[in-house]
Design brief:
With 249 residues, this protein is α/β, with parallel strands linked by helices. The protein has two domains: 119 residues, NAD(P)-binding Rossmann-like Domain (Rossmann fold), CATH 3.40.50; 114 residues, Dihydrodipicolinate Reductase, domain 2. The protein has seven helices and eleven strands. The strands form two sheets. A six-stranded parallel beta sheet has the order 3-2-1-4-5-6, with helices on both faces. The chain has a five-stranded mixed beta sheet with strand order 8-9-10-7-11, covered by helices on one side.
Length: 249
């Protein structure tokens, strides 16, 4: 995917956590088509270490510097509480923006990002990787074709046991941590993708010592009348997966 200038598609990487590292490693598989051109972190030392270990050519001294660099797009992998700020930096610079899940901390922030992208006429999308695997699309096609009959419900869960760590963004409410934001977004996204618009949502959670939801459950009613039940946890393991219930399957 070289551009009209004959060079690889250049990415600015905002954030240096494990997800950003995986993203850059995947970019390296594209060889001459795309590259991580510059990286920024809340501390320049983290950015320098990230760049040195992954072969990123440039290190920005700030997120704003990365957004204004000679790149084609920004990949935002900072904590969720910063997604709006950093997405707006890229949009203001006229760059395409790929925002790691969850897209924003709340609906109001998501709306502001969306409106800014529309006003600037730039591409902006949530990096929900499960939407781009073949199987979810095939399942959606089978639902639309009526293969499963009248869809009555969906169950989904994503659970893993982590030791509570106040220094981790997972357990920090100020950075947008919690089971729903980190893990519940996956079954929630699939529920919306497969069963359609949500007209009612109920949730309950167990709040841990650091102030985030360590366990949460959700129940959704879709416009079709179907019901979804979802569960996410930072503290307990479980059977991760999804099930769709229809009158034919």
């Amino acid at each position: 995917m070289t551009d009209v200038r004959g060079r690889p598609f250049r990415w600015a990487i905002l954030g240096t956590g494990s997800v950003a590292r995986k993203f850059v490693l995947d970019l390296r598989q594209l060889e001459a088509e795309a590259e991580a051109h510059i990286v920024a972190s809340r501390t320049p030392a983290n950015a320098q270490s990230f760049a040195s270990s992954l072969g990123v050519a440039h290190v920005a001294q700030s997120y704003a510097e990365a957004a204004s660099a000679d790149v084609d797009a920004l990949y935002i992998a900072t904590p969720p509480a910063q997604h709006e700020e950093h997405a707006l930096l890229g949009i203001a610079a006229g760059k395409a923006v790929l925002v790691e899940k969850p897209f924003a901390r709340d609906a109001a922030a998501a709306e502001r990002i969306m409106q800014a992208a529309r006003a600037a006429d730039v591409f902006c999308m949530e990096a929900m990787w499960t939407r781009f695997q073949p199987l979810p699309g095939q399942i959606r096609d089978r639902i639309a074709a009526g293969d499963l009959g009248d869809i009555r419900g969906f169950d989904g869960s994503f659970m893993a046991a982590n030791a509570p760590d106040p220094t981790s963004s997972l357990f920090d409410p100020a950075r947008g941590g919690g089971a729903l934001m980190d893990r519940g977004v996956y079954p929630l996204s699939l529920a919306r993708y497969w069963l359609g618009p949500v007209t009612d949502a109920r949730a309950t959670a167990r709040i841990g010592d650091t102030g985030v939801d360590e366990d949460c459950t959700l129940m959704l009613r879709h416009a079709s009348g179907a019901l979804s039940t979802l569960r996410a946890s930072l503290r307990a393991g479980g059977i991760d997966g999804a099930a769709i219930y229809g009158t034919k399957a």
